[in-house]
Amino acid sequence: MKKINLLFVCRYNRFRSRIALAYFNKINKNKSIKAKSAGLIKGNPLSPFTIKIAKEEFELDIKGKIQGLSSKLMAWQNMTVVVANDVPSQVFDKNKKYGKEVIVWKIKDVAGSDKVAVEEITKSIIKKVDDLNEKLRGK
To answer: Which ranges in 11-137 belong to alpha helices (H)?
Structure first.
């Protein structure tokens, strides 16, 4: 199996890409797959509310520094998953030119402190990551 450098991207790296990364790292057993996350725009610090729900409801640690998309990250990755409906996939058009894969999940962001919305979006991301992990096992 070839080495995969997987980059999860959302708008601000405050919720969706962090949930995807934390869950992927929790279930990934393949040492040749490394994952990171970033925001198209470097956002504000994480919401204590979403950190708490991720930890208490899903046993996911999403704490850490916000990371913006950089040329270094773009060079590192060979597969990008856009975990957002508000990030234009055209940003990653050149990836295909260089043989890099781009996957787009049109997942909405959560507004404010809506616990049900955070839980539903998190469940949706977990399902998508499970499907991706299954797909990567076949590569």
So the answer is: 16-27, 48-58, 71-76, 93-97, 115-137
Q: Give the pairing of strands 33-39 and 4-10.
A: parallel
- Six-digit token pair at 94? 């050149």
b/e map 18-33, b = 16+ CB within 10 Å: bbbbbbbbeebeeeeb
Q: How far is CA 85 from CA 4, 71, 126, in A?
A: 24, 22, 16
The rounded distance, in Å, linking the Cα atoms of 8 and 106 is 13
In angstroms, the CA 32 to CA 4 distance is: 6
Pairing of strands 79-83, 33-39: unpaired
pLDDT higher than threshold 60 for residue 1: no
pTM of the full predicted structure? Answer: 0.93
Domain 4-137, architecture per CATH: 3-Layer(aba) Sandwich (3.40)
